[in-house]
């Protein structure tokens, strides 16, 4: 019970930085001596000291003979910062409790082993499920070498995401939209198709609460139709990436002058090759993508099997003859993508359903 209590504190610290440490995991650490917390910290962002180093610095001399609780296995290699295992050994820590081992091949199991060889008592697996869920995007990123992908849709009770004239503001309430902004905050990038830009001209930023980092904005725009005057181009609070296939020199030059990052991608059946794009975004250290729409774009990710999590927001309205998710290529039920319900959230008058992919 004592280990669970202190690990829960470490997990709470880690959660404060969710979405701000990409492409690194979010990690929290607590140093305890004689039943009292003598140091604590979290990894603030990539390139800054890791959680263990911050907590040990705050503990000072009290770290000697202490127990260190950390939400992810300490690293053993030089990356943007030195190995955390060296700092733990040098501080004289007596015992280390780790929530979950790191899936990164550069670390996996070696951090715990390094500490054991130094004579430190190591315990692994305290609150592992919660810790694994906290960093599931990082684990996918390092093991599958692609971004973790969250799909998001808001729809009426009868399955419409807009009226037949394209009106979708607003199917859900302000409270539900605040949760949608939290999903943006936890992502490296928000992705939409060009039709969403043409119809809605969204800003695609986090605005429901103060936030230190805006996600990148990715627009799938095969024919370079995004207007120069659109909000994602004019607003400079975050980087905008346009993925295109058809070369239009004048438009490309105009976008470059606005500071837009451009990615030329191959087409697959007339649409951007999503698997090739994910490989490129992985190389650019895009760890977590929130796919917000529209219906065709979300449908393409589902058809390609490129998703890990699905947030469905249900508003208590009926639309009837409206816009629905497009053709998924399902002729028989056994072909239909399957999801497992992970969470059910009541938000005011609305409901948010969190699903994960069934393998």
How does this model look, in words?
This protein is an alpha/beta fold. Helices cover 29% and strands 25% of the residues. It is built from twelve helices and 18 strands. Strands 11-10-9-8-14-6-15-18-17 form a nine-stranded mixed beta sheet, with helices on both faces. α10 (249-257) links the parallel β10 (240-244) and β11. The longest helix is centred in the first third of the chain and has 14 residues, at 2-15.
* Count of helical regions: 12
Average of per-residue pLDDT values: 92
Between the first and last Cα atoms, what is the distance in angstroms?
34 Å
**Order of SSEs, N→C?**
HEEHEHEHEHHEEHEHEHEHEEEHEHEEEE
Query: What does the main sheet amount to?
Result: 9 strands, mixed
Strand content: 25-35%
Quantity of strands, as a count = 18
**Which regions are unreliable across 5 or more consecutive residues at pLDDT < 50?**
none
> In terms of quaternary structure, what is this?
single chain
Walk me through the topology.
Blueprint lengths: L1 H14 L12 E6 L2 E7 L8 H9 L7 E4 L13 H7 L4 E4 L11 H8 L3 E4 L3 H7 L1 H9 L3 E9 L5 E2 L10 H12 L3 E5 H7 L15 E5 L10 H4 L5 E5 L4 H9 L3 E4 L2 E2 L2 E2 L1 H10 L4 E6 L1 H9 L5 E7 L6 E2 L15 E9 L2 E8 L2
Parallel strand pairs: 3-4, 4-5, 6-14, 6-15, 8-9, 8-14, 9-10, 10-11
Antiparallel strand pairs: 1-2, 1-3, 7-16, 12-13, 15-18, 17-18
